[in-house]
Structure formats: structure tokens, C-alpha cells
Amino acid sequence: MAMSSNRFALSELRERIARLEGGSARRREVLSFGVPAIDRVLPGGGLALGALHEVAGGGNGALDGAAAALFAAGIAARTAGKVLWCVTRPDLFAPAIEQAGLPPGRVIYVEAGDEKSVLACFEEGLRGGFGAVVAEIARLSMTASRRLQLAAESSGAIGIAIRRWRRQTEATDFGQPTAAATRWRVSVLPSTPLPVQGVGRARWQLELIRCRAGESADFTVEACDAKGRIALPSEVADRPLQKEKEIGRRRASA
Questions:
Q1: Which Gene3D superfamilies does the entry link to (predicted)?
Q2: In this structure, how many other beta carbons lie within 10 angstroms of the beta carbon of residue 138?
Q3: Structural domain count, the chain
Q4: What is the model's pTM?
């Protein structure tokens, strides 16, 4: 009888370990940016799936806020399945979101009356089988962010909290700790110069200001294309190659 009981306990322990390992494997899945300079600073080589991430505009203006929304849209566009987007204000410009890779057929928009309702929709959406859930909120407490993180872990969906403020006094909340895996800040830069008259591809200053199990970093990038992909400007992307060539010339002449 004791032998049978021990075998049952051992079998149960193995099942628990397998479930835990399965959960860890899912949390290790990532969504890469396809930009080596960015992916290499992120644990696992990309944004963790089954996790919560935060994004905010770098300044107080509408331009940086719009850039933050487009950055989030680009991330969501590269996930599989439907995307839920929760807002309190009906000022999201859907054609711009489509240009960042999210066509109307993939997005379900929810307009909630207040932030409490948005957070409830956010959490429910993360448990509801969506590939990504985006929510625009001003305040995010540690307790609320932990609930969202647990909801994301349970489904494997990626959650993106876009921090938007009605009043400048609310902006200080962005510096408070949360359970988010990463925290990003996006600022608009002058567009890519063209050899002819016209407006080139938009550029952003992309700051990774917090990364769990990683380090902060900042990048100059070209904004999302029609597939949600960002890129390094050519003069920035060529720097490592130019540096390697310079090192090679120095070695050759030594």
C-alpha cells in the first residue's frame, strides 16, 4: 500500500513539473522585431508573448501619442488572430492603424465609459483568445498590472497598455513600478530625407526604459510599414559594417 501511495505521489509530482515547464516554455515564446540591434537587448530575442507591455509617447503632444499608438499597432499586427483595442475616447484614427498593418477586419474596437471599464475589458480580452489586446489607459497600479500579467500568461496573448493622460499631473504615474515585462517611450523625429522633394518615411526615437531581466536602451528607427515592421535607418544600420571595414583596414596597414 505504501509503495502504491509513493508511486501515486511521484506521478502527481511529475505532472505538476510538466505543467510548470509547459507554462515556462510558453512564457519564453517571443515576438521578434526583426531588427537585430533591438532583439539582442530583449531577453529571448524579442517581446515576450503571454506578457504585459507598456508604451507611452515621449512628450505631451498629440504627435508622440499617435506614434505610441502606431508602435503598438505594429506589434499587434505581427501577432496571429484578432486584436482587441479598448479606448475611453473615440479619437483613434483607424486608417492610420491600418497603415501600420492592422486592417479593419482584424480589429475589434471597444469604447468603454471609464478607465475601470477599460481595465475590465483589457483583462477579459487577454483571457478571451485574442492574439493581442491593446488598451489606452492613464493610470496603471501594481495590482491591476499583476492581474493583466496573469491573464496574459494564462492565454499566451500579448497585452499592450498605451499610457495616455488627460492632465499632465497624471503623467507621473508612468514612472511608478508595474508588473509589465517592458516599458517603451516613443518620440517623433524628422522623417527620412529623400533625394527628391517630398516627405520620407517617419522616424521615431524608441526608448526601452525598462526591461525585466534586461537593460534599457534607445534606438532611432523608421516607423512601422504596412506589415507592422520597424527598421533602422540606412545610415544607422550601416554603422556596424562601416566600423568593421575600418577595423579591417587598420589591421591590414599594421
A1: P-loop containing nucleotide triphosphate hydrolases (3.40.50.300)
A2: 16
A3: 1
A4: 0.81
Instruction: Count CB atoms within 10 A of the CB of residue 45.
Output: 14
Which residue, among 149, 138, 147, 143, has the nearest Cα to 174 in the 3D structure?
A: 138
Alpha helices by DSSP H, listed for the chain, are 2-28, 36-39, 62-77, 94-99, 115-126, 142-155, 234-237, 239-253
Tens of each residue's pLDDT in the chain, 254 residues: 554 555 555 556 555 555 554 444 444 699 999 999 999 999 999 999 999 999 999 876 788 999 999 999 999 999 999 999 999 888 899 999 999 999 999 999 999 989 999 999 999 999 999 999 999 999 999 999 999 999 999 999 999 999 987 766 666 778 899 999 999 999 999 887 766 665 678 999 999 999 998 999 999 999 999 999 999 997 665 555 455 445 445 555 55
Q: Residue 72, by phi and psi: left (phi above 0), alpha (psi -120 to 50) or beta? A: alpha
Asked whether residue 14 is assigned to any structural domain, the reply reads no
What residue numbers bound the domain in which 246 lies? 30-253
Question: What's the rounded Cα separation, in Å, for the pair 169 and 152?
Answer: 29
Cell of 176: 511608478
Q: Is residue 13 part of a domain?
A: no
Q: Are 35 and 230 in contact (CB under 8 A)?
A: yes
Cα(19)–Cα(23) distance, integer angstroms: 6
Q: Within a domain: residue 16?
A: no
Asked if residue 19 is part of any domain, the answer here is: no
Q: How many residues does this entry show for the chain?
A: 254
Give the domain CATH number at 237: 3.40.50.300
Give the three cell numbers for residue 204: 521615431
Evaluate whether 182 touches 215 at the Cβ level (below 8 Å): no
Contact 131, 85 (CB under 8 A): no
